[in-house]
Amino acid sequence: MFIDGEWVKSNKTLPVVNPTTGATMATVPAATASDVDRAAQAARKAFDEGPWKTTTAQDRGKLLFKLAEAIRQNADDLAKTDTQNMGKPIVEAEFDVNDAANCFEYYGGLATKIHGQTLTVPDNAVSMVMREPVGVVGQIIPWNYPLLMSAWKLGPAMAAGCTSVLKPAEQSPLSALKLAKLMEQVGFPKGVVNIVTGDGPEAGAAMVVHPQIDKIAFTGGTEAGKHIIKNSADTMKRLTMELGGKNPNLVFADADFNAAVDGALFGAFANQGEVCSAGSRLLVEESIYAKFVKELAERGKRVKIGDPMKRETKMGPLVSKEHRERVLSYIAIGKKEAKLVLGGGAPTDGELAKGWFVEPTIFVDVAENARIMREEIFGPVLAVAPFKNEADAIRMANDTPYGLAAGVWTRDVMKGLRVMKEIRAGIQWLNTYHPTYNEAPWGGYKQSGFGRELGLFGIEAYLEVKQLNINLREEPIAWY
Q: 463 and 132 in contact (C-beta within 8 Å)?
């Protein structure tokens, strides 16, 4: 692990498994509470006393620019690492690496754009607002976008002037560790970024309750998020929660048919469906439903499943054996609840039998109360159902405890905007699905969490607001 500028071990270790082959590809420390304490103390010292405290915003930005360039220089290795570590196709991993570099660059530019205010007040005084870094932040990221999620967390925190303890997911910690090497290489002061590897119940839990950590930024499942919220209460931590979703993708009869079919497949099966914003609930207008479902199943057969290191592969393995078992258990439930038209199993032939693969799976005629329609599966499983009209589409889209993302497909832009306005979700797309921009806020409504990542909102999440009042009168208050 990387703590206080040093590479350190722990008393315990964790295996890191290649999900394509099932073989152990590395071993990393399993951080204990004492390891987390050491990292938190290092981050605290770097924030309160170290050179980071006096590093100018301009110099913080320059370091982030240097890090972005270092990522680009090591792009092939970083992409290969994420593909071998968590199974995403290499082409997708390459996009992630580029996005990570862009993210650090974006926040490098924002480091000098943190502004205060001067207020007009009803007194002979000057009132000012300052924005200051929140302090030491604990950042817990998931396994589905290992390098990119590191950038989403560290970029705005560093730009704001915070110090960090980052815990990557135990299944996919390797690119975060390589990122720490690059941060060391470009000259980040020791203690500013600390990477601890370990599991949630021990390392993550220790971060959540640690008194020296001022904020927790978490991306992951809703149930884990609820646990963090409860356990962080005693220390009154600031929180950013980017949680799960069961996201609707609505196709109206006047949509571009081919574009909508492609968008539905990509929304559901990109990154093996291991995406919090996946369009896993596909709602199609009744008048085109039968035609759409037929074409969807037919075109879904083209999704190339295989070795994610091969450039023609469009779907790799799921991240772990345990997660594959969970997804297959939902598919078994789905077979009892709805009609299966594609997939529904795990490949058993050749090399694919060694890894944690699941076929792209589509269920149709799914009831609104079906578990596969309501619960987040986080795998390549798409539930499809018809809607009658615009009002019915909005009602069905909002019939969920989640509110992360949504897609709408229609050539009628007026209708599209009407529908998007009514859908209770924080990220929405019209006539596309999944584009994610560093410049735009990312986060959800309802049980999909609170707070926002990315954009100007992302850096605000790492800033405190301070009020300063300067009295311009020289005479005493004379109240008494």
A: yes
Q: Which helix (H) or strand (E) holds 463?
A: strand 463-471
- The CATH number that domain 2-243+448-468 falls under is 3.40.605.10
Residue ranges with strand state E in 100-156: 117-119, 125-133, 136-140
**DSSP strand pairing (13-17 vs 6-7):** unpaired
What 8-state DSSP symbol labels residue 445? E
> Look-up: residue for tokens 């999704």?
303
Question: Under a CB-based contact definition with an 8 Å cutoff, are residues 165 and 208 in contact?
Answer: no
**pLDDT tens track for 252-290:** 999 999 999 999 999 999 999 999 999 999 999 999 999
CATH 3.40.605.10 positions along the chain are 2-243+448-468
- pLDDT at 356 exceeding the cut of 90: yes
d(CA 342, CA 169): 31
What's the pTM value of the predicted model, to 2 decimals?
Answer: 0.96
* Residues with active-site annotation: 242, 276
CA distances from 374 to 247, 281, 324, 455 (A): 10, 8, 19, 30
Beta bridge partners of 166: 139, 195
Q: Measured between alpha carbons, how far is residue 262 from residues 62, 167, 258, 267, 430 in Å?
A: 41, 35, 6, 8, 14
Strand 361-364 to 339-342 pairing: antiparallel
Q: What are the structure tokens assigned to 322, written together? A: 């345990």
248-430 is classed in which CATH architecture?
3-Layer(aba) Sandwich (3.40)
Q: Decide if pLDDT at 50 tops 90.
A: no
Q: What are phi and psi of 283, to 5 degrees?
A: -115, 120
Nearest to 240 by CA among 341, 156, 355: 156
Tokens standing for residue 162:
């915070």
Q: Which amino acid, 447?
A: Q
Paired with 239 in beta bridges are: 216
Going by the DSSP 8-state scheme, the letter that residue 353 receives in this structure is: G
Short-list 116, 81, 75, 115, CA closest to 99: 75
Residue range(s) occupied by CATH 3.40.309.10 in the chain: 248-430
List b or e across 227-246, with b for residues whose CB sees 16 or more CB atoms inside 10 angstroms. Answer: bbbeebeeeebbbbbbbbbb
> Could you report the per-residue pLDDT of 297-306, keeping only the tens digit for each?
999 999 999 9
CA torsion angle for 205, 211, 217, 222 (degrees, to 10)? 40
- Residue 364 burial (CB < 10 Å; 0-12/13-18/19+)? buried
